[in-house]
Design goal:
2 domains; 151 residues; two-stranded antiparallel ribbon; alpha+beta; 6 helices
Amino acid sequence: MPKPKIIHIPIILSAIILSALSHSKSPIYSSQQGIAIKGYDTVAYFTSKKALKGSFLHRHRFNNVTWLFSNRDNLNLFKKNPWGYIPAYGGYCAYFMSFGGLAPADPSQWHIHRGRLYLANSLSTKNKWLSQINSHIKRADSHWSKLRQKP
């Protein structure tokens, strides 16, 4: 009787995510319901210096996902300059992207560096990211560029 092949779940998930990325010009991490960055207000990181949950009362559809905001002012700021507020790497974990991997982020683990929002999937990965942020950014930008260019 032949031995069953072992398939690693992360490999399967990466393949599924990469397939989804290939169909989108600018992939954004979102829930199955199409809510960006788990419903957090992407503008609040800049204006309030906090990770705040957004509300369906203040929502906006952009780049095929729904963005939620904690107030009307943040919604209006986003509408004026969405790419200025969207997290790096579409809201995927920045640290994993620096190694060419995709992982969902925990929006409560964040950092703004040189005007750009980065999310991590845990406090420990955020700390690793911050320990060598410039080299991680260089590698992550390169991986993200390649990911977005895949046919």
